[in-house]
Amino acid sequence: MNCMNYIGSKYSLLPFLEQTIADVVACSASGGVFADLFAGTGAVAGTFKRKGYRVIANDIQHYAYTLNRHYVENVPPIAAERLDWLNSLDGEDGFVYNNYCAGSGSGRNYFTDENGRKCDAIRSALNRLFDGGEIGEDEYYYYLAGLINSIDKVANTASVYGAYLKHVKASAAKPLALELPPLVDGERGKAFCADISEVIRKVRGDVLYLDPPYNARQYCSNYHVLETISRYDIPTLNGVTGLRDSEADGQKSAFCSKRTVAAVFEDVMANADFKYIFLSYNNEGLMSLDTIRDIMERHGKYEQFTQGYHRFRADKEDARNHKADSTVEYLHVCVR
Ligand SMILES: C[S@@+](CC[C@H](N)C(=O)[O-])C[C@H]1O[C@@H](n2cnc3c(N)ncnc32)[C@H](O)[C@@H]1O
In the predicted model, is pLDDT for residue 174 greater than 60? Predict the structure, then answer.
């Protein structure tokens, strides 16, 4: 459903997740509530919406909220008659061009000048259309989710936004084309943009799927450019790479620190009002497999499933030379 190249994406693991979850949740809860509270690209949330669950999705990052707001809350049909008009707009010198493109003198090379200016034109038009009441929230997030996916395809990076490339690579030289993401059939769900520690106290349901970061790489630093395009909040940027102040944004994740991860995971488990809890976490993460088992066993019956998995690499081209570079992906289960 969604192919954005994203750290920890479960897109390629969907068959394993779907099968294991269906096996464990024997009476297959069509019509039940499925919560994906580290939802990222929305690959898992969208898949389970299509299966008939009412889906609750959450992510601390706003670009992820945008994607999930679309996949989970939008149901067909939604008109998209402004797509051609948005694609035909003249570029403008806005925040993206002024801060992420070399031609503006920003010193940064995340997008070509044309793509940065086109992105600004589309992004500011979406705000005008929405503020002027010409499109509703559903349409707004339909187009904005499309913009997040489409601009990511022409980013001049080795994949994440921790750095940009000096020379424009072939995929980044292509012109930005706004493409709409699929509309997912199913019941209208609910998306949140908050820390899981907040959301877990507000929601309840049948199946809880947890896919936290498993190492120290903060998503706010690796995807800060998408965050700014999604929010378009004109932040102060810092340093060579133009980072936002993620401390101020409240987006530094406690799951990315060895010191705090076990305590926040325990807190999530203690406050989860769900019968089935699934945790994706591999064998190289900040929490050991024993710690996970200890915590989950305190809250119900524990089981573990595994599948071999090709590792995410920052550079897709590099990945071709590392075919044997794989790790084991675990799905930990707690049944209440
Ligand atoms: C491994 S990724 C999830 C990938 C997702 N399952 C997919 O297939 O695209 C982890 C996600 O957790 C989010 N995250 C990190 N800490 C969080 C927190 N404390 N509360 C909510 N979301 C958080 C990150 O922004 C990131 O999108």
Answer: yes
329 C-beta closer than 6 A to ligand 1: no
pLDDT, tens digit (0-9, with 9 covering 90-100), for 90-128: 999 999 999 999 999 999 999 999 999 999 999 999 999
Q: Do β-strands 33-36 and 204-210 pair in parallel, antiparallel, or remain unpaired?
A: parallel
Identify the structural domains of the chain with CATH numbers, from first to last.
1-76+184-218+253-336 (3.40.50.150), 79-182+224-248 (no CATH)
State pLDDT tens for residues 248-300: 899 999 999 999 999 999 999 999 999 999 999 998 999 999 999 999 999 99
105 CA distance to ligand 1 middle (Å): 34
State whether the beta carbon of 195 lies less than 6 angstroms from ligand 1.
yes
C-alpha 259 to ligand 1 mean position (Å) = 18
Q: What is the pLDDT of residue 334?
A: 98
Ligand 1: does its nearest atom lie under 6 Å from the Cβ of 192?
no
Which of 7, 59, 284 most suits a substitution to test ligand 1, by most atoms within 8 Å of the C-beta? 59
Atom of ligand 1 nearest to the CA of 2: 9
Whole-model pTM? Answer: 0.95
